[in-house]
Amino acid sequence: MNTLPLFDWHLHANYTDGHASVAECIQRANEKQLHSLALTEHVRSDSDFVEKYCSEVRRAAAESRVKVWCGAEVRILNERGDINLGKDAAQRFDLIVASVHRLPERPEGRDAGEAYCRALIGACENPWVDILGHPLHVPKELEGWTISETQQRSIARAAARHAVAIEVNRKYAVPTREFLKICLDEGCLFSVGSDAHERDDVGEVNGLLEILASLGVSDGALAPVEWKMI
Ligand SMILES: [Zn+2]
Ligand SMILES: [Zn+2]
């Protein structure tokens, strides 16, 4: 049975493609008595809503029983692990989930699968990144590609070394147990995210926590440093 605390650190409100307001997401988290919630709106360097979004989240957070973090989901652009968000905007957030949404830029001749792995490793080395979002959910150009154990281990090692949490994601049902076992073996931190875009999906993370619990993940291995401040 899962005894890990119920937390959801990946979801979208209606500033981008989610359908619920910030207030509705936080209300749902309170109804479900979550341990904590992180709103992680899609943010880019040209997003013009960051200030309004952050102040709305922080205002609502002040009145919430459930601890609420103001986060962002950003894209990983290349093998250096650059994200599509500048430093000034990045520092407004409590936590940043970095995800690959399309094939990262790569040097000519680089195998696309290898470029994908290097981009995840690069993101772990980026000091702004706290969580790898839906790892091993690959862009459609890579469908059918199989990641090797060596590649999985390289990603897990980079994540462990830089204390970047590996997310278990409900929307895409990733990553595999095989990868999670390697991550556990390498001493990674873990996070869970519903990736909700609807109010009712906020906090739907029980199944994800059960996966982690069944692998022997303890609450000491959950999430990055902010977790310890609660
Ligand atoms: Zn995503
Ligand atoms: Zn997302």
Summarize the structure.
Helices cover 32% and strands 15% of the residues. The chain is built from seven helices and seven strands.
Give a description of the structure.
With 230 residues, this protein is of the alpha/beta class. It has a single domain (7-229), classed as Alpha-Beta Barrel (TIM Barrel), CATH 3.20.20. The protein contains 7 helices and 7 strands. It has helices spanning 22-31, 50-62, 87-90, 112-125, 149-161, 177-186, 206-214; strands at 7-8, 36-42, 67-75, 95-99, 131-132, 165-169, 190-193. The longest helix has 14 residues, at 112-125. The two termini are 24 Å apart. It binds zinc ion (2 copies).
CATH class: Alpha Beta
Number of strands: 7
Spans of at least 5 consecutive residues whose pLDDT stays below 50 are: none
Largest sheet: 7 strands, parallel
CATH topology: TIM Barrel
Mean pLDDT: 95
CATH architecture: Alpha-Beta Barrel
- What is the string of helix and strand elements? EHEHEHEHEHEHEH
Helix percent reads 25-40%
